[in-house]
Design a protein that fits this description.
Layout: H1 7-15, H2 32-35, E1 47-48, E2 66-67, E3 76-83, H3 90-93, H4 96-107, E4 120-121, E5 124-125, E6 130-138, H5 148-158, E7 168-177, E8 183-192, E9 195-204, H6 222-240, E10 248-249, E11 269-270, E12 276-277, E13 282-283, H7 285-290, E14 294-295, E15 301-304
Parallel strand pairs: 3-6, 3-7, 7-9
Antiparallel strand pairs: 1-8, 2-10, 4-5, 8-9, 11-12, 13-15, 14-15
Length: 307
């Protein structure tokens, strides 16, 4: 999300009134080069909770996102990691694991995925087709999202063979509550055993009104609906702006998910497998220019609902 924010700023917000869980980085030989890095991977896509964003409107007269010379993800090879002892509890897991597997499967070639296919980078154009490899469960104690290196370490521990094309996207869903952290999720990038990976972090959002899209359809549990909403935000941003140096964001650093956060152009969006979700729209430069998008929270008509 806000590319210009420093990690120090983000950590200060995350730690305010919030005791983070212990840092279990799981060092092991294959990924020692990743874990010994002197810098944290950058938090590129912070999804702020309701009312917590420091601002999403562009600082110039044009709200358009521009290309900053980085790569995009022409496709995404997705895999989910459910981290924390609570995931072995059927009551806690509820419909979330099976539901998110269905979400990622149905995302491929959906109209919602196509909201990002106008963006190009040094390695091609974003495409609507993705591949989901299913899920992994790690019942060891999870950390919160304050350190990107800890989440990268979990990805490198759980995924023994990351996708060699560099298009692997590994989403870590923890059982850690958000507490007073001001964000719901984020995405970042790094390497596992020398292979480039994109990864994302998600809090446990059960009962969390600050990260809840208020889905009243009754199709999913509240916790799953919240995770589905922030998942849409992070994956869309990772596809158009996956790593440093960045690809697509506006003059204030806002990515496509940020520019339409907490705005909904339709009650429900139908995926390619027929499953429906309440999801925010995603910013389209083309839609804004043509005047065919719906308005974001700043009144800029560039959001596509994915219908």
């Amino acid at each position: 999300m806000l590319q210009k924010l420093t990690l120090v700023t983000l950590l200060s917000q995350a730690f305010f009134g919030f005791a983070m869980a212990a840092d279990n980085t799981h060092p092991h030989d294959r990924n020692v080069e990743d874990l010994n890095s002197t810098t944290e991977p950058e938090m590129l896509g912070v999804h702020w909770a309701h009312g917590s964003s420091p601002g999403r409107a562009a600082t110039t007269s044009s709200p358009l996102m521009t290309n900053h010379g980085g790569k995009i993800m022409p496709t995404a090879i997705t895999q989910t990691i459910f981290w924390g002892p609570s995931w072995s509890n059927a009551s806690f897991a509820s419909d979330k694991i099976t539901g998110l597997d269905s979400w990622y499967t149905g995302f491929s070639n959906s109209n919602y995925a196509k909201t990002v296919d106008e963006y190009t980078g040094t390695n091609g154009t974003v495409g609507a087709a993705t591949t989901h490899l299913g899920h992994l469960i790690d019942t060891s104690t999870a950390t919160g999202g304050g350190k990107t290196s800890a989440i990268l370490a979990e990805v490198c521990k759980a995924v023994t063979k990351p996708d060699p094309s560099g298009n692997g996207y590994y989403a870590v869903y923890t059982d850690v509550k958000r507490g007073h952290a001001s964000y719901c999720a984020w995405h970042s990038a790094g390497t596992c055993g020398g292979v480039a990976v994109q990864f994302a972090f998600f809090f446990n959002l059960d009962g969390d009104s600050g990260c809840d899209p208020a889905d009243t359809s009754g199709l999913h549990s509240q916790g799953l609906s919240a995770l589905a909403s922030v998942t849409a935000h992070e994956l869309s941003e990772a596809r158009s702006d996956p790593a440093t140096p960045g690809a697509w964001y506006d003059s204030s650093g806002a990515e496509n998910g940020d520019k339409c956060a907490w705005t909904f152009g339709a009650p429900l969006v139908t995926f390619s497998n027929g499953v429906q979700w309440k999801l925010q729209g995603e910013w389209s430069n083309a839609a804004y220019t043509a005047g065919t998008g719906y308005p974001n929270s700043s009144g800029q008509k560039g959001c596509l609902s994915g219908l």
